[in-house]
Design goal:
By secondary structure, the chain is of the alpha/beta class. Helices cover 42% and strands 15% of the residues. Strands 3-2-1-4-5-6-7 form a seven-stranded parallel beta sheet, sandwiched between helices. It has a six-stranded parallel beta sheet with strand order 10-9-8-11-12-13, with helices on both faces. 48% of the residues are buried. It holds the Pfam family Glyco_transf_4.
Length: 398
């Protein structure tokens, strides 16, 4: 049997194009599988498209189809329309593999593939699903948590394989009885090991930062799960001990107004630099003395992988798959989610003991090179594709 998937038609489905970890993941896989196959990306949230995502896909020569009815939120009418839209597209395009990403995309895409199976003339499609962090692990109202849990559980039977990007999420899936343990496998995100970058002076010049400042960086989509207002509180607290502290926030999203309001509340506008988008942000990572990620929920963060590859000290919360990447006190510093005092203390420690912080960063840099390569991620994912393609029955069957 060949070690590679060849001559197949593969679709990657994702709920939205707003660039983040899941979008990075989809484009990484699409770029690789495009070498031997025909690849198409299906993306929802037609009214909120991310120009950067489409430019990246175009540069890779990847065809993108926008789904008019697939949205992030829960709407029975939209969900029904999205299932029918995806089913029509599957029948027309005749994909061999449908790789689903995100909760709504995973549920509705797998339902559409299952419905397609009732058409005796339709080509059978193999379905797999990557979990980039179960939504029911987010700090939601109990009713909403239960709804998302039931969506995952009900649709799991239509998926031939479920990839989790962290063992944390795999264990959560097992505890919640989402699917049999044998159908879920952990494949950590991986990145290219070679990436050029600017010097410290060049990177600081780009952000207009003084050379003697202690600079904390963060790149993220501004969603509530990132808990960026807490980081603003922490910067205000740490400024009493580190007068030269500065914060650079790279990103945008629904929490932007809350973030700017928090900055104004503390009167630290001159301390915080906000940049909506920096393509290949990691090339500028040398500007930072530390990167801090105060999330309440994570899958397996590409931003932390890229930070670690650049050799920048990391402070993060002990959530999701982050402890699988960072061993506290060895590769970086971890604090409990929501711990304002602990996060402040960790920032002060990095500022006061820079050599120890750099040693931890160097250790993480070496671990990433050994354990979290893009090639390894692709190899393990391709093995699942091959298994599904050679299985006796279609993965989308009920």
């Amino acid at each position: 049997m060949s070690e590679h998937v060849e001559g197949k038609k593969i679709a990657f489905l994702i709920t939205q194009s707003k660039f983040g970890g899941a979008q990075h993941y989809v484009l990484s896989l699409a770029r690789y599988f495009k070498e031997r196959n025909e690849v198409v990306v299906l993306v929802g949230e037609a009214k909120h498209q991310d120009e950067f995502f489409f430019k990246e896909a175009a540069a890779l020569g990847i065809r993108v189809i926008v789904l008019d009815n697939l949205i992030r939120g829960i709407s029975l009418v939209k969900a029904y329309d999205a299932v029918l839209e995806i089913r029509r597209l599957l029948a027309k395009e005749r994909f061999d593999i449908l790789h689903l990403n995100s909760s709504m995309g995973g549920a509705l895409g797998s339902c559409a593939a299952w419905l397609l199976g009732f058409d005796p003339l339709a080509k059978r499609v193999r379905v797999l699903y990557t979990v980039h962090g179960f939504v029911f692990n987010e700090p939601l109202a109990p009713v909403r948590k239960k709804v998302y849990e039931l969506i995952e559980k009900f649709s799991a039977g239509w998926k031939g394989a479920i990839i989790t990007v962290s063992e944390f999420d795999r264990q959560a899936g097992i505890r919640h009885k989402i699917a049999p343990p044998a159908r879920m496998v952990t494949i950590h995100n991986g990145i290219d090991q070679q990436a050029g970058g600017l010097t410290r002076q060049e990177a600081r010049s780009f952000f207009h930062l003084p050379d003697d400042a202690f600079v904390v960086g963060l790149t993220a989509s501004f969603y509530p799960t990132k808990n960026i207002p807490l980081l603003i509180d922490v910067i205000a607290d740490a400024k009493r001990t580190i007068p030269a502290i500065r914060l650079v926030l790279i990103g945008n999203g629904p929490e932007r107004q809350t973030i700017t309001d928090t900055i104004a509340k503390h009167g630290i506008d001159a301390v915080v630099t906000m940049v909506e988008s920096v393509p290949e942000w990691y090339r500028y990572a040398a500007a930072f003395d530390a990167v801090a990620l105060p999330s309440v929920k994570e899958g397996f963060s590409y931003a932390l992988l890229e930070t670690g590859r650049a050799g920048v000290p990391i402070i993060a919360t002990n959530v999701g798959g982050t402890p699988e990447l960072i061993v506290h006190g060895v590769d970086g510093l971890l604090v409990q989610s929501g711990d304002r005092v602990g996060l402040t203390a960790a920032l002060v420690e990095v500022a006061k003991k820079p050599q120890e912080a750099r040693n931890r960063a160097r250790h993480l840099q070496q671990r990433i090179a050994r354990e979290f390569s893009r090639d390894e991620m692709l190899k393990k994912t391709e093995a699942i594709y091959l298994r599904l393609l050679t299985a006796g029955k279609p993965a989308a069957s009920a």
